[in-house]
Amino acid sequence: MVPTWHYLVLSAALLTIGIIGVLTRRNVIIILMSLELILNAVNINLVAFSRQLADVSGQIFAIFIITVAAAEAAVGLGILIAFFRNRDTVNADEIDLLKW
Amino acid sequence: MMFAQGSFYVLAAVAVVSALLVITRRNPVHSAIYLIVTLLSVALLYLQLQAEFIAAVQIILYIGGIMVLFLFVIMLVKLDVALRQPPFNQQWWVAGAAALVLAVELVGVIYLGRGTAALPQAPPGSLQPNTELIGRTLYQNYMLPFEIASLLLLVAMVGAVLMARRKAS
Amino acid sequence: MTLLLETLKPYLLPLIRVLVVFLGISLIVAYLVYAERKILAHLQVRLGPMRVGPHGLLQPIADGLKLLLKEDIMPAGADKGVFLLAPVISVIAAFTAFSLIPFAPNFYITDVNVGLLFLIGISSLGILGIILGGWASNSHYPLLGALRSTAQLVSYEVALGFALVSALLLAGTLSMVAIVEAQQRQGVWFVFLQPVAFFILFVAAIAETNRNPFDLPEAESELVAGFHTEYSGFRFSLYFLAEYAAMILVSSIAVTLFLGGWLRPFARVRALDFLDFTPVAVLVLAAAWCFRECFRYPATREWRWQRLLLLGLGVGALGISAGLLLPARFLPGGGEGLPAFPALTAIQGVFWFMSKVFLFLFGFIWFRGTFPRYRFDQLMSLGWHFMIPVAIANVIFCSLAIVLSRQMGWGLPATLWLGTAATLLVAALLRREKA
Amino acid sequence: MAQPQDISTTVLGADEIILNMGPQHPATHGVLRVKLKLDGEKVIGSECIIGYLHRGVEKIGENRSYPQFAPYVDRTDYVAAVSNGLGYCEAVERLLGVEAPPRARWVRTILTELQRIASHLLWLGTHALDIGAITPVFYTFREREEILKIFEKYCGARLTTHAFRIGGLQYETYDGFEEDVKKFCRDFEEKVDEYGELLTENRIWVERTRNVGILTAQDAIDLGVTGPVLRGSGVRWDIRKAFPYAAYAQFEFDIPIGERGDTYDRYLVRMEEMRQARRIILQAVDSIPEGPILARVGKVIKPPPGEVYHSIEAPKGELGYYIVSDGTIQPYRLRIRPPSFINLEAFDKMVRGHLVADVVAIIGTLDIVLGEVDR
Amino acid sequence: MTDEQKKEEQKPASPEAAKPAAVAAKPPAKPAGPAPEPLDNEQVRRLRARFAATIGEATLDRKQAIVVVARERLRDICQYLRDEEKFDFLTDLTAVDWYDRSPRFHVVLNLYSFARNERLRLKVPVADSCPSVSGLWSTANWLERECFDMFGIVFEGHPSLKRILLPDEWKGHPLRKDYDILKQDTDWVRENLGIESGQ
Q1: Is the pTM here over 0.95, yes or no?
Q2: Does the interface predicted TM-score (ipTM) exceed 0.90?
Q3: Which one of B56, B67, B68 has the shortest CB-CB distance to C118?
């Protein structure tokens, strides 16, 4: 059986990659995808511990996180579309007006 | 056992490599494809962790829902301009350094917490039948959070529709 | 050598099953195209394929060869990798899903406890093939087709999901095998308890497979060929394969959930046990048809191979039916603990299962010959304003009915029909509101 | 009143794309090319680009003698060649000041009405096909085939028939002509109902055609559309009644009109026109007078100087011939007023605000033939 | 409109007789054939009273009324005919090239009145340009484009006057009598192949 800490390492790796993506990319779509990576990293942890502790709560929380991810993607992409309509760009560093 | 071990490492490697590709590809469609690969391998890892339900949800919701939404949006916005611009912003080295610090920190935490590895592993099959267990827990112990989550989805739906809708013309 | 055999032994039987299923599905897909062309032709007062082989029986093979030999054209400016990958995704998604379908009580590749969820998940991967293919073609028609397709599939998946939930309420399990067994135990196919859910599943299945009247993504009069406009040759045939495999898949899901899977009609009525021999009867009839046709061809040189083919088919069919009737005691290993005709029993499940699937597929083809095409906004409105509310109402009323029958001790079918009546009322209200 | 035509020069918004439909497209009925400006799937502008089939028929007309030109008109609206021939022959006859003998006019009426049915059948099949119903086209072609067989027996050609001559007919009807026509009419009655069963009450068909491509009577007149498109908009006008030609004054028939001017109304109008055409044919075939079939027009046709405009109710609308004669054997100027061309002009007005799927429905409902649009 | 129309249709149709001028005109004996004759009815008199000298000769040719009008007031005349004389339908608009006359072209407008079931043909002699009537009848838009395409007559005030049937880069206007059908080919051959003629 694969020890739990292997999953933790994998999760940490995905989390770091996700954070790098969020911090460095300009394209908002890819930033949103990196956010999904981060959320997935969390889920791996939750499910791995759920297995180790034989407690299904971890999986429940994973479900909640997937729910949140869906909500976040929907709202994020909605904002993106609205933004693209007004400014004709998808670059995060060009989102520099608080109103238009 | 060998098989389980081996497949974990293969899947983990695939997940990490394609995650790296996600954040480095210039074209968001390619990023999305690699993200799908990552999500699929994570789903298979869930299977290995005896979380069949989560694995199925991951595939249906993440890949069949969220990623399709992503692709849809990518196709709606014109990317020709974005493709010619530099993909990374100017403070990338600051971000890289911060992420490096974070990585070190994470490794440290895992190392410090290695005691948990000594904790007894639950025997296989302890979370079966998976779907029934999740259903029971979800609707008995976590009823309120579940309802809140559905409310959240509703709000998100309304918000997304409102955002994406054109001004009445 | 023996060691190798010993280690391979546990994998051998599953491997054979996988091969049989996938080859069988490919063959059925090929002949489904043939059947579609024939049935449509007869609906439209013409003959359909008649040239290649007797009654055009070899047409699918000729078509396949033609597609394989055609030039594989890639549009300029296409995203090469994605363009090549997309049809493969579609095919893999469509075929992998078959591994979860129980064709007979002892003939399926695998059965997992979240089988149905996985089926939905895997089949939703097929959307990716469509949307990526449409995008990668770098052309307006495929892009519009892909967008339409995605919106359509995502919308109808919701209604489909709710229809499946209605069946799950009755079965109490997600395992495909257990769902059929539940119908066996309860002695009734779920279609008789959940007609509304079955109807919604049927309509959603047509929409999910992009078939007429919901074939907007590939509406040839508007978008030329939708998402696969720019595909040609082998890659086009992959999409083609995926589409027809998806048709068989959704029919299989519907049959498993609502039409009792491998169960024969009236499985509990002993007096109808002779129906078990239907597969044999069908084979014998097919053989008789082959022999008759064989002698209707003139005995000239140019028809010789056609006659030979028919003769061979007839003899083959007779042989198989004889094999099916082979009593257990002549089999190696003796007849202990086996049914009287073991081969027959094994094939029966597949026979009934596939018969029901074909009934479904005939419906698909029939619809295609009959209906005009919906417009995109009408399709969406039908999905969101009618199908989904009705499906949700159905789930609510039927779960109420199940709870009621448990709490009050009422008969399950009667309460469910009450629930169905309530759902129909909702549906009628929705229609009225729209009109 | 005139819409800005050029959509390519306007600036595109964020969600707008230009979609080019045709000239090779299954639903543009030939070589029509339509440039659509889309907002998502909504059409916000369109431009028809035509001329791919331009053969300079009018120019050819100036360089051929009057009888020599007759076969050319068959090739304008090539699915209603008989109607084209009737219009041309009658225009030249009027220029000459002669009239075809009664028997010729009766036979002309029968053949022209058969041609109207054939043309409408072709329209019905392809229109249904465009909207996604793939079966009606085979049924309509089955009946169209019967009509073409009658043409073939009469004059030896099925499509470009050149059935009439200036001054009457070249051929006497063949033995059994009346029986063939009657048999066709007898069978045809229930066939029309059969198409109706497939479409008229079909929910999807109604939803696809109701309120699509609405043309008010006002707009229809302003845009100069004629034929079923005009009548679908509720204007009860038919040249067969307004300026009777051939033998139409002798027969009873109704002019169906629509109420809302949408695609469904135009569908109903054409369906009813097929029934009325059958009615006319039945009346005509029972009363064909005996007598000569060709008026005395002389060996060389040389109309006196002057000009004439003569139009007939072709299946697509008002098909007019404006011929200016300078007293020689060739027309000085020969103008064909093409109904398809002018009906197609209404396309932009009808299509704005609809979805891409409606574009093909509207092209179908206009019933254009590119041979005639482009000439 | 529709009601009027219905009324119109219900009375037995004999439109030739309904035409005011048709009563007088019986085509002469055959050998001579029909010939144009002068037309002078109420309508023409009204037109003359209103537009005076801009209304030229009015004739009846093969029982069809033809009025020659001057290009200067074409739009006013059309407006008057459409709104007051109820010639609300522009059936056709085309041109004739009388290349040896001056002015060279006749622009021919075929009007129809639903209310009176009557046709009227206007002929406008023009040299090379003519006022556009596309503001009065939308249908004139394409017809004038075709006319421009084929004859090179410029319609002033047309929203987008460009070629319609021929490609934009076409040279010449084919329905002019002096148009050489081989000219474009020969030019191309000369320019691209360097030989005198491809024929």
Answers
A1: no
A2: no
A3: B56
